[in-house]
Amino acid sequence: MGGKNRTFEESKAIRDCAMGRAFEVIQARLDLQSELLYMYADKIKSLQPIGHGSLTPHFQVCSKDGCMGCLHVRWKRWFDPQKEQRKRNRMYGKKYGEKVVASSFGSKDISNVKQVLPRGDEFKELREIVAAFEKVRGQRAKMIEHLSNALKCSSYLDV
């Protein structure tokens, strides 16, 4: 690496160009990963019947201004309260007491989607798509973690 001794302004301009290129690559990668997550989410929704037990990823913003990790993924499992009541009656009998339930669907947050995925050969493709979704989600989370750590390090600058 040879060359002339550069001034501060010249070296800053060269460094700024290199950092700009790096940030463009990082932003493009995060955008691509977000697009993949949406594509996989649509595929997951299309592979399941709409109804009791369906699993769907939901994308949420953490605050009004958001953060580098927005949109955040939350898995939800949909359920029919009337089916839940029938299951409760089968398990405990009528003595358990009937609750009045609405017929509209509800959802529960799922912390580990791989534990509640349906079994069986007919759901093999669904399990593969969910695994791919979780892989991209993990890669994206790792990139955001590294970027967050870099930002934290920049706040320690004592001159």
Write the layout of secondary structure elements.
Elements: H1 8-47, E1 55-60, E2 72-79, H2 81-92, E3 106-110, H3 113-116, H4 124-154
Antiparallel strand pairs: 1-2, 2-3
Helix pairs in contact: 1-4
In short:
The protein has 159 residues and is mainly alpha-helical. The chain is 55% helix and 12% strand.
Shape: elongated
Gap between N and C termini, in Å?
29 Å
**Residue share in helix:** 40-55%
- Number of extended strands: 3
- Taking Cα atoms only, what radius of gyration do you get, to the nearest Å? 24 Å
Mean pLDDT: 83
The class by helix and strand makeup works out as mainly alpha
Main β-sheet: number of strands, strand sense, barrel status?
A: 3 strands, antiparallel
- The helix/strand order is HEEHEHH
Oligomer status = single chain
Note the beta-strand portion.
Answer: 5-15%
Uncertain residue segments: none
Strand order of the largest sheet: 1-2-3
In words, what does this structure look like?
The chain is mostly helical. About 55% of the residues lie in helices and about 10% in strands. The protein is built from 4 helices and 3 strands, in the order αββαβαα. It has helices at about 10-45, 80-90, 115, 125-155, and strands at about 55-60, 70-80, 105-110. It has a 3-stranded antiparallel sheet with strand order 1-2-3. Helix 1 packs antiparallel against helix 4. The longest helix has about 40 residues, at about 10-45. The mean pLDDT is about 85.
